[in-house]
Protein 1
Amino acid sequence: GLRVAKRLEEVGFSDIVRVRNRVLELRSTGEVIHAFHGGEPFFETPDAVKYAMMRALVENKTRYAPSSGIDPLRAALAKKLRAKNHLDANVEDVLITSGGAHALYSAFQAVLDPGDDVLLFSPFWTPIREMINGALARPLLVPTASARRNGLSATLEKMASPHTRAIYYNTPQNPAGIVFSREEAEEVAAFARERDLIVIADEAYEDLVYDGEHFSIGSLPGMAERTISTYTFSKSFGMTGWRLGYLTAKEPFITGLRKLVLYSVNGVSTPSQWAALEALSLPESYFEQRRVEYKERRDLLVAGLNDLGLECELPQGAFYAFPRVQSIHKQSRKAAEILLEQAHVATIPGTVFGAQGEGHLRFGYGISMDAITSGLEALRRFLGR
Ligand code: PLP
């Protein structure tokens, strides 16, 4: 009959869209909205990358490229993955995707069969749950905070089922800005090796760590063959709209992944790939500058929230703060609604990121210092403090 495939019936839309639409609606009536609901960098695509795009167009780099990506970009990424992530990556192990989302979607499609289970640290980036559902697999939620207190291996051991096939491992993490330590990566890796599991590593925020260092789980012994590591140009380079990402994996996964890209998009936009090469030649000082700017924003926002009695741990990476907001309302969905409607402060309810986010709101701080200051002012007026 006239129905979509069963696997799509399992998939939902994100409630983030609902917040975004309500913000647009309020703005169209002339209201000023303090926008902490987004997940985009505050800076624009570097000029060097924009000019490289223009050059690529003028030079007619506008035809089909190899579906796995142009060789110079794959080679440059392999080099980056070796130097920066300490991964054992060669040109043939790299696949260009349409953003990190497409890399992750492909990864789940490449490894999951119906009935498989995936260990998913919660709270999590919402689309991951839907990608797992869409593969007719089941997410097994691992409460991150208590797992970190009680030991990751013990908790993973407890949550895993006989059908567990993969672990989604996101660091720096969205929505709470958690950065897993090298020791934690070693624990997760040991568990994956022992149970013969695949790790899908999401390193979208690798360049945005303010305390400590980013560590790639795929660089640990025995992990190269069982890790699909995914990356994006979105967050490091202010290129969210370009839809450029990549992944690295070994056989048999990389061949499976190449087929998925071949028969879905048949390769990512050719001129964009040439432009992306330019992003990879930015100096280390570029990343350092971004980190300084983000850290400034983080410190301003988190100090302000704590001042207002919205208890907030210091996120170590990415660009989100995840304070407790029970003093506004017990339910985070209601708290977000109250703040948006009454204080014109837009946030995302913690429960959007899984039940473990209850009692929290996500504040994105990829916005200007002035916007953070005036948002905190609006909160202060509303809370009467
Ligand atoms: N992974 C995480 C944790 C994210 O938060 C995002 C974007 O918000 C992505 C991956 C993918 O981003 P994109 O598809 O823009 O590369």
Protein 2
Amino acid sequence: MAQQNGNLAMWQDDGASAESKVFLGQILALTGSEVSRTKHLPGQGSGFVHAHRRNEEVYIVTQGKGWLYLDGAEIPIGEGNVFRISCDGRRAIRAVNDATLVYYCIQADGGSLVQATRDDGYRLPERATWMKE
Ligand code: ZN
């Protein structure tokens, strides 16, 4: 059964903390991925570099500008950027000094995808009101 457990506005915060992170997996009862939203205030960022044992990550920057530390390089990032980092990628993210950075991160088990949406989806005979016969 489909679930709609919220909207982006309810996962915002008061803006008071230097970093805020919300994990949506539990909120949305996800079973095949984890999704988080992170906000770094200007000049703030991850306090450590990390990698993953199993999960690759897709980052989607929705606000601001920042820096991505990836495998020793520091790469400028900004709103609209989307990037994938493999499990062993050594990563950290921070906001630039004059802008807040907000991004979503989707984690999924690296190498686990054995099919894609076009192969997995199938049509049903029922129709929504906007669909013509
Ligand atoms: Zn991670």
